[in-house]
Amino acid sequence: MPQFAVIIPAAGRSTRFGENKLLQRLGDSIVLSRTLDAFRHRKDVSQVFVAVNAAIGAAKVTVCPGGFCRAESVLNALRIVPASVEWVAVHDAARPLVSEGLIDRTFAAALEHGAAVPALPVHLTIKQASGPLPAKVERTLPRQQLWAMQTPQVMRRTALLDAFERCPIPLDQVTDDAQLMELAGHDVWLVPGDDQNIKITTPIDLKLAELWLNAPK
Hints:
Layout: E1 4-9, E2 25-26, E3 29-30, H1 31-40, E4 45-51, E5 61-64, H2 70-78, E6 87-90, H3 100-113, E7 115-121, E8 126-129, E9 137-141, E10 147-149, E11 153-156, H4 157-165, H5 177-183, E12 189-192, H6 203-214
Parallel strand pairs: 1-4, 1-6, 4-5, 7-12
Antiparallel strand pairs: 2-3, 6-11, 7-10, 7-11, 8-9
Helix pairs in contact: 4-5
């Protein structure tokens, strides 16, 4: 069975939430614990690397310093993933409801294609304009070709390291790991995402997560 290392960048400041969102209660646990548990109990995950400026005591979890931005936190963790591990998955710490099925199909697609990311179709009409508003519309983007990214984002460890080394823009302008791969010329494949796999950014998102968690199965 191929083994995956999972990187959890968790050093964000939770500015839009108002306090540390990863420590908020969600069901019988907290947000960060639920995220870690989604991966550390899997047989195909060898170790979970958390980039956070705090101590965490949990089986199969290794902590490293967080960075000044998400991409630097990922890089800090990536540098300590053993060279013997071929595959890495990067998952947002604030996505505590990721399902086993979503992880399964993203891992499988990465093994088949080299890199895979879950995505959801964009249902809103998207306009391009140079903000801040008010601003003149420049064009309407065809939403049939637009996809909203989720995590985990999965690729070969060496490919992601190569992408970081060749990144042509400042790391604080990198929005996800798939972007790094694209900029380095690596192919990335999309797989169906999951509406339940929400990212908690505001207190309203936490309430939505609680509704998902308590919804009839």
